[in-house]
């Protein structure tokens, strides 16, 4: 499919079918940008459209077109797609709406979309309900509305399911060279992952940004990530929305904490694709990736002529993974020579205004904030709207630093509107990143540090199941124990005789629990530290027909949550976090997709806020980390064996002692 898409996205001939204003706009856009191939309007009711002679039907065309914009109603679109496919056309943009996106109002809409896909056969189609695409490299625009792209020799590709968001992104004034914009529409046949895979075959594409509403075929995304990494074309994603998992009825803490968004984040992390959370962050990250590609470290430096700005960038970086290292001796020496004795040297640095408009001194000072151990150096400059040209010294100094040092260098306007378009273009031309917005600059830098090679293990795809039933705690523990999870000794009892026998066979004190309740603690059905003589009366007070009695553990360093939810959109989501009755209040969790390795699990554990407790906090003993990892891997083994029926499985808490990791409570939901 990707090779077929190349013909569609890099056409030498374009057919535009329909006679409305939308179709005229498609023709005028390509002519205005300078498309050098053939453009063939097709409309039986007009002799000319947008100044070009019109053909009466596609049968009259000189040859099968490479790309077709179909601007007619949805029913006629289906028949025309079949005809285009039969004649060997390269691909089509289906502009009409009223397909699956209208299923709630029109029962026939989904069936009509299925007919469209069948009619296309092996011919690629975009949409339906889709604006199309812009190829600013070759001036090929199958685009029926306004757009702000300009011809470029190389640049980034942007994909979005929303045509309106696509229009807005083309209007960016941030000096970002945009090579392709693709509005994906309903993605009835061709997915975002397949489209992106085709675009990275174009060596002129430097990075790809994807605005994702939902994943379809997960293995398509895995293939894309592997291919992009191999070709050196970094990806960045803006993921919005939630999967079906968020609407599922759940009974476990894991399900309420994980949800669809955790699955999406875990999937993107597994693919090595950094995730951003706003359109400005997406554009600024693409700008950085276009200039420098992924970043290898997180050590940054900042220089500005204001103490307020130095403090502002330092505070803005709090909560990110970015670090301001102390100045080296070489940096301090170079800065002192450039700035004199009156400036207090630090990182971030306020160099005051002593050398302002002295281009050579500014260049020397700014270069002094670069170095082999610095991933990115920022100079904060907000150009005045009254006379931005008066600050040409700042632009020149930044360009000089890049030319002299080859360092990753950026100029940040703390307010996006104070980075003039012409200044941004000049900086980009010289290899300096013109960041629009302080927060956006730091978010983009952090995102660029998170790009990495994708995981080579394919995710496990769940089988959708219904009518899930919850196993009892004892049955859940027994099932997990069979796969290597350590559990306390326990007995399920239904009578006074059962209780007496259980007490005789185990050593107290005991945990006494009601059976058959989803949230036992909230129901007051968990009693801890019960002496042998009191078990019978406590069991009677709890009042459930069955009572679980088990040996108490008392030497926990920390209690953890370990759970897996079958997420139909992303696979099996493993959630690790602070456990116990305060799990949902603490919300100290992280998520991975299965299968995961021991190394990945250990890294996830170390990312938790409660990680210091695992390693021994303030003289306390540390937990047995290998035992915890073994417990998680044993849980994973259970999931693998029951992938076709599993809905949820949870251990909460996993009692982590200096010697053991024991599942004190467990829950399993299966079809």
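-> sequence recovered:
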């Amino acid at each position: 499919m990707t090779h077929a898409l190349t013909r569609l996205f890099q056409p030498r001939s374009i057919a535009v079918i329909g006679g409305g204003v939308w179709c005229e706009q498609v023709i005028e856009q390509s002519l205005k940008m300078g498309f050098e191939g053939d453009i063939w309007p097709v409309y039986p009711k007009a002799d000319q459209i947008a100044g070009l002679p019109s053909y009466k039907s596609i049968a009259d065309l000189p040859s099968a077109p490479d790309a077709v914009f179909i601007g007619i109603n949805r029913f006629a679109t289906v028949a025309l797609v079949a005809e285009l496919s039969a004649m060997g056309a390269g691909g089509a943009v289906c502009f009409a709406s009223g397909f699956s996106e209208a299923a709630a109002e029109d029962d026939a809409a989904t069936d009509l979309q299925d007919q469209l896909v069948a009619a296309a056969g092996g011919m690629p189609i975009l949409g339906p309900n889709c604006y199309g695409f812009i190829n600013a490299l070759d001036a090929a625009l199958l685009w029926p509305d306004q757009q702000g792209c300009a011809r470029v020799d190389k640049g980034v590709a942007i994909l979005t399911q929303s045509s309106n968001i696509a229009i807005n992104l083309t209007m960016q004034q941030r000096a970002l060279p945009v090579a392709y914009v693709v509005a994906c529409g309903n993605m009835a046949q061709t997915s975002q992952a397949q489209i992106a895979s085709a675009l990275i075959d174009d060596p002129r594409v430097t990075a790809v940004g994807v605005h994702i509403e939902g994943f379809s075929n997960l293995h398509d995304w895995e293939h894309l990530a592997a291919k992009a990494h191999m070709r050196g074309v970094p990806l960045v994603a803006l993921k919005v929305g939630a999967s079906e998992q968020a609407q599922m009825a759940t009974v476990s803490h894991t399900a309420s904490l994980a949800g669809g968004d955790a699955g999406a984040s875990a999937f993107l992390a597994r693919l090595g694709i950094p995730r951003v959370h706003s359109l400005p962050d997406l554009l600024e990250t693409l700008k950085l990736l276009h200039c420098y590609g992924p970043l290898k470290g997180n050590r940054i430096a900042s220089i500005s002529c204001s103490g307020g700005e130095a403090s502002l960038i330092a505070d803005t970086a709090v909560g990110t993974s970015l670090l301001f290292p102390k100045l080296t001796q070489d940096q301090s020496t170079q800065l002192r020579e450039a700035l004199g004795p009156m400036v207090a040297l630090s990182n971030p640095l306020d160099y005051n205004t002593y050398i302002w408009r002295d281009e050579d001194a500014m260049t020397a000072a700014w270069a002094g904030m670069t170095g082999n151990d610095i991933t990115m150096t920022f100079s904060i400059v907000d150009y005045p709207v009254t006379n931005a040209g008066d600050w040409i010294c700042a632009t020149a100094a930044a360009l000089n630093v890049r030319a002299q040092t080859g360092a990753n260098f950026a100029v940040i306007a703390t307010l996006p509107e104070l980075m003039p378009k012409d200044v941004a273009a000049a900086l980009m031309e010289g290899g300096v990143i013109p960041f629009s917005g302080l927060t956006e600059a730091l978010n983009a830098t952090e995102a660029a540090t998170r790009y990495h090679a994708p995981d080579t293990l394919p995710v496990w795809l769940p089988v959708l199941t219904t009518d899930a039933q919850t196993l009892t705690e004892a049955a859940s523990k027994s099932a997990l124990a069979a796969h290597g999870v350590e559990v306390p000794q326990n007995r399920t009892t239904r009578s006074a005789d059962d209780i007496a026998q259980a007490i005789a066979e185990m050593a107290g004190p005991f945990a006494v629990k009601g059976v058959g309740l989803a949230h036992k603690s909230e129901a007051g059905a968990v009693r801890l530290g019960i002496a042998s003589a009191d078990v019978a009366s406590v069991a009677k007070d709890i009042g459930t027909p069955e009572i679980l009695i088990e040996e108490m553990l008392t030497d926990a360093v920390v209690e953890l949550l370990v759970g897996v939810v079958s997420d139909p959109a992303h696979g099996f989501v493993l959630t690790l976090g602070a456990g116990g009755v305060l799990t949902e209040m603490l919300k100290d969790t992280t998520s991975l997709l299965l299968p995961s390795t021991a190394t990945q699990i250990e890294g996830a554990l170390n990312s938790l806020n409660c990680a210091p407790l695992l390693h021994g906090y303030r003289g306390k003993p540390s937990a047995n980390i290998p035992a915890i990892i073994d417990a998680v891997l044993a849980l994973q083994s259970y999931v693998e064996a029951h992938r076709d029926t599993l809905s949820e499985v949870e251990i909460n808490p996993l009692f982590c002692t200096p010697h053991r990791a024991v599942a004190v409570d467990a829950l399993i939901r299966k079809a």
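The chain has four domains: 2-213, 295-449, 489-551, 558-670.
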